[in-house]
Amino acid sequence: MKKYIIKKTKTKGKGLYANKNFKKDELVLKVDLSRLKSFTLKQMQKDPKLQSDHCDYIGNRRFVISYHLYSYMNHSCNPNVYIKHSSMKKMEFYAMRNIKKGEELTYDYGANALEGFDKIGWESFKCTCGSKKCRKTIYSNFFKLSKKLQKKYFKYLPQSLKRKYRGRIE
Ligand SMILES: [Zn+2]
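Above: inputs. Below: predicted complex with zinc ion.
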């Protein structure tokens, strides 16, 4: 049985949904972007084919286009999934709480946006996640999150970023 299904959401295009129950801290999905062809910011900007919702930052000023399942996961200000990075290219998504079959899987797009995205188009967007904690505008900038959320998400970042940015958090 598939663990997830992709289907249309009411307001946000397609989304990824749980097709089984997940326990808190259970691995939801694993992603390795290291084999994908990567591009520089300049290449991305020049080529309209590379301007995609499925663009992801992998560090060292390079980007990939990924149609992996996780790329269908929408943002929520009250997400049920968090990302643990072993590097910018290798990540694991875990359940932040118990998730029931049929729930949409979401994570916080601000949680790992420390560098990279600011310059390529989605600096911010209006959020329609509908959660009580909705921040209304989502910035592709970790440091625009509340201090509380920065602390919450910092521990899941890759070591390289933790080293670089530790001083700004503590
Ligand atoms: Zn929201």
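The pocket of zinc ion is lined by residues 77, 127, 129, 131, 134-135 (CB under 6 Å).
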